[in-house]
Amino acid sequence: MESIKYSGKTFELRELNLKEFGEVLIASTELSDLLMNDEGDDYGSEEARYIDEQICYFVTPEQMKTQDDLLLALILDNEID
């Protein structure tokens, strides 16, 4: 399992195979929230922009805890459709 460190915290990344996109990285919305500035309308830094561009989809912390990659891929496929 991959992880990324940003703003002094470590966030888990997961690689999933989504039917529309193939292999993609997903991360928690907690990371997404930190990547944006206080107003929420732009990235907090160029590093934040780079990280965000590497991640296809942000999911809730509860969804990140789902152990079954296939189940989580199915959930995301349904949300994306």
What does this structure look like?
The protein has helices spanning 29-35, 46-54, 61-64, 69-80, and strands spanning 2-6, 9-18, 22-28, 57-59. By secondary structure, it is an alpha+beta fold. The chain has one domain. Strands 1-2-3-4 form a 4-stranded mixed beta sheet, sandwiched between helices. A hairpin with a 3-residue loop joins strand 2 and strand 3 (22-28). The protein is globular, with a radius of gyration of 13 Å.
Total number of helices: 4
Summarize model confidence as the mean pLDDT: 87
How many runs of DSSP E, i.e. beta strands? 4
Q: Give the percentage of residues in beta strands.
A: 25-35%
Number of spatially distinct domains: 1
Give the biggest sheet.
4 strands, mixed
The helix/strand order is: EEEHHEHH
* Radius of gyration from the alpha-carbon trace, in angstroms: 13 Å
Quickly list its features.
81 residues, alpha+beta, 4 helices, 4-stranded mixed beta sheet
What's this entry about, in short?
Helix content is 40%, strand content 31%.
Q: Topology of this protein?
A:
Elements: E1 2-6, E2 9-18, E3 22-28, H1 29-35, H2 46-54, E4 57-59, H3 61-64, H4 69-80
Parallel strand pairs: 3-4
Antiparallel strand pairs: 1-2, 2-3
